[in-house]
Amino acid sequence: MDSITLIRPDDWHIHLRDNLALETTVPAAARCFDRGIVMPNLTPPVTTVSRASAYRERILAHTPYGSNWQPLMVLYLTDNTSPKEIHAAAESGFIYGCKYYPAGATTNSDSGVTDLTKMDAVFEAMQSVGMVLQMHGEVTSDDVDIFDREAVFIERHLRPLVAKFPDLKIVLEHITTQQGAEFVLNASDNIGATITPQHLLYNRNHMLVGGIRPHLFCLPILKRDVHQQALIKAAVSGNQKIFLGTDSAPHTQDAKESSCGCAGCFSHHAAIEMYAEVFDQAGAMDKLEAFASTNGCDFYGLPRNNSTILLRREPWKIQAAVPYEDTQLIPLGAGTTLNWMLVE
Ligand code: NCD
Ligand code: ZN
Prior knowledge:
By secondary structure, this protein is of the alpha/beta class.
């Protein structure tokens, strides 16, 4: 197979940041995707419908001419989120989910939820209006090793939550473990998961053997090889609950190449091409469209896109850097060669 046409994909988990960053991130999202679930971890976070509306306007001001790309907005849950805000979000017509960050788990998550068990009224409201809960699935307790944080979260918090709110639609975001994949595949149809390109292409050896590679550092952190293999298997299975979410999360080169580097990989320069690489290597190009273009919108109850993209087998080298804010960032896979090219 030397080319493939796909229904235009969507990205169910992106970080666009704000202001100057939007000059890079919005055109990068629109180069291939038709819609993006926009993460709300700004400073200050997008905690209300009015903040989401203002942020959406700032994003739309950067949409390239002629593009159909649409930002799908998300509310950031805090200890103080009210059920009233959830109802207002559902009625807004532009908010498609609410994001749970455990306080302190990742970049800009300090205002996140401190105790999941105190959020019952909010989850009750979300369940009643059919609002999707997007979860950063990691515990933050000091006693849990960083490589175990997802697996412990599933047992400690996610299973009890799903039992309590069986009709709540939940996306376990950017799964990174065999336990994450198995949990979602064995759960009911209203539980889905996104997978990033970095967790499919790399494992922790790529990040740590022969030198530390800060541009592969993201959260949840890359795990060992068996987990990477389990994620590939889940992604190429075609299962309707598993879909594309890049977690493309830009940080400047300086912020990453530092004694305390930020978590997050920027991947929108080549996201669909990287996923194509994974599916091709697994001999599963016929499953790429389900993963990239139909499973996600079916899960969210949104229509499928009516345009298409064309990918061609043709080697090309990923750029070394991307202009970002007043400086630059190092994109995921910088300098490496990909075998699939986005033609149109
Ligand atoms: C994200 C970011 O930089 O905003 N970082 C990351 O490592 N994935 C936050 C997140 O999604 O956890
Ligand atoms: Zn993210």
